[in-house]
Specification:
two-stranded parallel ribbon, UDP-galactose 4-epimerase, domain 1, 11 helices, Rossmann fold, 331 residues, binds NADP nicotinamide-adenine-dinucleotide phosphate, seven-stranded parallel beta sheet, binds ligand G4F, alpha/beta, 15% strand, 2 domains
């Protein structure tokens, strides 16, 4: 039975990946930080087969212990401070966890893996945020980076240190440059889920409106469930390489609003949406659109869920969740 260790297992991608690997027959270990992390209970209820190990990307010794306990064949480093807006106000923390945390995990793997016959394969969660002020359209594995946030800068470090450990020590270490991917498990702080949750609540009479920032930004949005499969495929290749994972389509926040409100029969969302400068960022990433040709040709990977299907799935999930909360409150 192959063994995998996932950092960030309580996050959106961590949960999808844990389920995917479990279905592939892996023994799955999930790294969880904090002495009493409230998210542990929820994931253990949902995934009773998950082996929880303690560890923090800020603490090398805890990572060495976690890798030693799990003895994984594959490590997926998904843990990060991942919210771009938060990274502007917590730049040092973001650099420490999303940047230096990658280096610590690579060193933990070298320390524990160096004593084993079969090397540990490493996946780093790189991001389209590294392209930032994009130098070309669409973005590929060869597009230069120009990050626009402390988060993007930290991820560029994580990306290059992964490449450097591959080249310096011959590690099987690769990065997936994933464009935005969403779904019902997306955190409420991200724009897609913020919108679908608000749409559900407005429809049910629980909320009057929704305050957003920049509505003109464009993103290449895919479904998280499709994207975790690409992570796994990257670690099954003969040699470690980096891949862009994207749908090849881009849509504005306005287009997302069109589809989300239409799901509950509202064609004109303008009366419900206000623009609030608190949600604008000191520097914005205006346009992201990826070219995943390499992943298609080499990994045989393609996205399955379309943009309208994604929006529909997220609104349906939030309607269901909000209705269940209402029923529970009535009991
Ligand atoms: P997410 O839902 O925000 O999850 C982040 C995870 O990181 C959580 O499990 C969190 O644990 C964990 N974490 C935070 N600080 C940590 C620390 N000090 N030590 C260990 N774990 C820590 O993010 P996601 O959307 O699943 O994304 C997964 C990864 O892919 C992230 O690295 C993100 O930057 C990257 N990425 C995401 C996208 C996207 O569109 N979703 C695109 C490209 C790249 P707690 O629950 O305990 O806070
Ligand atoms: O949903 P967002 O916060 O995602 P963002 O900044 O694109 O980052 C996500 O995707 C990255 C991949 O490219 C990941 F690496 C990263 O970890 C994260 O998962 O914002 C999307 C866009 C931005 O342009 C933002 O300015 O939506 C705009 N926006 C407008 N109003 C808003 C809001 N974003 C949020 N979160 N909240 C708003 O009210």
């Amino acid at each position: 039975m192959p063994r995998a260790l996932i950092t960030g297992v309580t996050g959106q991608d961590g949960q999808h990946l844990a389920e995917f690997l479990n279905a592939q027959g892996y023994e799955v270990y999930g790294l969880v930080k904090g002495q009493n992390n409230p998210r542990i209970g929820a994931i253990v209820d949902e995934m009773p087969w998950l082996n929880v190990v303690q560890g923090d990307l800020a603490d090398l010794s805890s990572l060495v212990t976690a890798v030693d306990q799990a003895q994984p064949d594959e490590v997926y480093n998904l843990g990060a401070v991942s919210f771009v807006a938060y990274s502007f106000t917590h730049a040092e923390l973001t650099g420490d966890i999303s940047g230096l945390g990658v280096l610590r995990m690579l060193d933990a793997i070298r320390m524990v893996g160096g004593m084993r016959d079969n090397p540990i394969r490493f996946y780093q969660a790189s991001t389209s945020e590294m392209f930032g002020e994009v130098r070309e359209v669409p973005q590929t594995e060869m597009t230069p980076f120009h990050p626009r946030s402390p988060y993007g800068c930290a991820k560029v470090f994580g990306h290059y240190i992964t490449m450097n450990y591959r080249e310096s020590y011959g590690m099987y270490a690769c990065s997936g440059i994933l464009f935005n991917h969403e779904g019902p498990r997306r955190g409420i702080e991200f724009v897609t889920r913020k919108i679908t949750n608000a749409v559900a609540r407005i429809h049910l009479g629980l909320q009057d409106g929704l305050a957003l920032g920049n509505l003109e930004a464009k993103r290449d949005w895919g479904y998280a469930g499709d994207y975790v499969k690409a992570m796994w495929l990257m670690l099954q290749q003969e040699a470690a390489e980096d891949f862009v994972i994207a749908t090849g389509e881009t849509h504005s926040i306005r287009e997302f609003l069109d589809l989300a409100f239409a799901e509950v029969g509202i064609d004109d969302w303008e009366p419900y949406v206000t623009q609030d400068p608190r949600f604008l960022r000191p520097a914005e990433v205006d346009l992201l659109i990826g070219d995943a040709t390499k992943a298609k040709e080499r990994l045989g990977w393609e996205p399955e869920v379309s943009f309208p299907q994604l929006v529909s799935m997220m609104v349906a999930n939030d309607l269901d969740l909000e209705k269940r909360k209402m029923e529970a409150n009535l009991r």
